[in-house]
């Protein structure tokens, strides 16, 4: 039962980040530095203010509702979406309406800044909680797995936090041709704007690399496995040839798997399906604010995910 006189809810501020770090560790056993949290929730990247919220019981942090702001573009229209993430409540305080009330406070902050909608890549738990808040349902993402016959040395490097080593083998800067390929004219769908500012934002808390093979371009992060985000392939044949070359590098580097997470409506999904069968991944849910919205006009990528 919600008791507004017992708990204090507020917009996330600079001095709250150490408590967010504490909450994420206690609830999920997730280790992340205060510096990386500040980079991740930097709302100045799209030029707005903070929309995440936190709850206290006295001086004790007890719940957090995280949201990052993203720019999506279609033709000449640019809109802001918020992606909900890192929602966490201490076990002792679950079932008291904190998640619901923090979410509503965040939605008020979003609406005041003309955010078009909030969305999330959802598991079963987040799906149940969003239904109570009136969220709508969209599509499943699709995942494509490509295993490589190698000793999984990359997993050991990831545990030792040595992922920076991949900078010796892959490029951190994209060629102009690669940037152009990853930024097609969005004439019929909204997609997240991929700019050097966006890449700098992502690199502030994770390392990412560009792979260019056979006129294909892949933007990846490597943490045990190779996670493939925004990508471009001019044809099915080019994609198949590029994957053969990437697999060879993966074998050499001890990367045991290459993982794509792709919007089912994306052309890349159709291209990958000619090579291997997809599996269902996260469900995408959303809640529109100021205007009616249908995500049928949106294409999401793995690199939209907050942890990518």
TrEMBL record:
Q: Which organism is it from?
A: Lacinutrix neustonica
Q: Which InterPro entries match?
A: Acyl_CoA_acyltransferase, GNAT_dom
Name the Enzyme Commission number(s) assigned to this protein: 2.3.1.-
Q: What is this protein called?
A: GNAT family N-acetyltransferase
Q: Does the keyword Zinc apply?
A: no
User: N-acetyltransferase domain location, by residue?
Assistant: 7-158
Q: Which UniProt keywords apply?
A: Acyltransferase, Transferase
- GO molecular function, one example? acyltransferase activity, transferring groups other than amino-acyl groups
Does Transferase show up as a keyword for this record?
A: yes
